[in-house]
Design a protein that fits this description.
By secondary structure, this protein is of the alpha/beta class. The protein has a single domain, classed as Dihydropteroate synthase-like (TIM Barrel), CATH 3.20.20.20. The protein is built from 10 helices and 8 strands. Strands 1-2-3-4-5-6 form a 6-stranded parallel beta sheet. Helix 1 packs across helix 2, helix 2 packs parallel to helix 3 and helix 4 packs parallel to helix 5. The longest helix is centred in the middle third of the chain and has 18 residues. It is globular. The mean pLDDT is about 95. It binds 6-hydroxymethylpterin-diphosphate. The site of 6-hydroxymethylpterin-diphosphate has 21 residues, from strand 1 and strand 5.
């Protein structure tokens, strides 16, 4: 899954694809580089980000989705019902939902759904997040949401631990280290670790543009332990790296 942020303020690529033509060009590149899905988002959810109006979010993403949907599979990265519905009408077939609350929208629209775990909301989620057992709490929350959506008739449900969403570095590392426990639930797992700040911290304070090696390590690890999809900014190198992990041993 390639990331396409049509925002002025995303943490690693804010402003780069805010212009419509630039966004469509980048989406085409992501497909050409080997993305199976391009994830179009119009609201930054980086820690501390404030909300965007639904009208503005739609204005950002809908024309881009319309332009890219004929070229490949589009997901819409939103936590807002009206945006998700309009995005599906514009051609998206997967709702990437960081609030894990739009399962009924996916059911009604007959599209796939990603349920991501987030503790709190973006503006405040990094204020001292606490868990007794982060892996069990995230897993149980996601399985409950995913089961509810399956019962409502959503046929494609992904679960995602929500790396960096209300989590410390240790929480992120525990979730990655125990990703197998999410895989064992039987729901396909999506992981988004690309360029996130814990990778910068671990590698000595690198800014987002210098986190490729760390991002590839996280993607390769996730694929190795059974994640079915990784959400990344750097599609071409990730596709190459994942191809190495995906080789069968004779
Ligand atoms: N992370 C981000 C946004 N959407 N969706 C899923 N399913 N999983 C994730 O880990 C995830 C996500 C945050 O990254 P990004 O879109 O690059 O930044 P921003 O929120 O600043 O636009």
């Amino acid at each position: 899954m390639g990331v396409l942020n049509v925002t002025p303020d995303s943490f690693s690529d804010g402003g780069l694809w805010f212009d419509h033509e630039a966004a469509v060009r980048h989406g085409r590149e992501l497909f050409a580089e080997g993305a199976d899905v391009v994830d179009v988002g119009g609201e930054s959810t980086r820690p501390g980000a404030g909300p965007v109006s639904e009208a503005e979010e739609q204005r950002r993403v809908l024309p881009v989705i319309e332009a890219l949907a004929p070229l490949g599979r589009i997901s819409v990265d939103t936590r807002h019902r009206a945006v998700a519905e309009a995005a599906v009408a514009a051609g998206a077939t997967l709702i990437n939902d960081i609030s894990a609350s739009l399962g009924d929208v996916a059911a009604e629209a007959g599209v796939g759904w990603v349920a991501m775990h987030m503790r709190g909301e973006p503006r405040t989620m990094q204020h001292q997040p606490r868990y007794d057992d982060v892996v069990a709490e995230v897993r149980d929350h996601l399985v409950a949401r995913a089961t509810m959506a399956t019962d409502r008739g959503v046929r494609e449900v992904w679960i995602d631990p929500g790396i960096g969403f209300g989590k410390t570095i240790d929480h992120n590392l525990s979730l990655l280290g125990h990703l197998g426990e999410l895989v064992a639930t039987g729901f396909p797992v999506l992981v988004g670790a690309s360029r996130k700040s814990f990778l910068g911290t671990i590698t000595g304070g690198r800014p987002p543009g210098e986190r490729l090696a760390a991002s590839l390590a996280a993607a390769v690890w996730a694929g190795h332990v059974g994640a079915g999809m990784v959400r990344v900014h750097d599609v071409a190198p990730t596709v190459k790296a994942m191809r190495v992990v995906g080789q069968e041993v004779a």
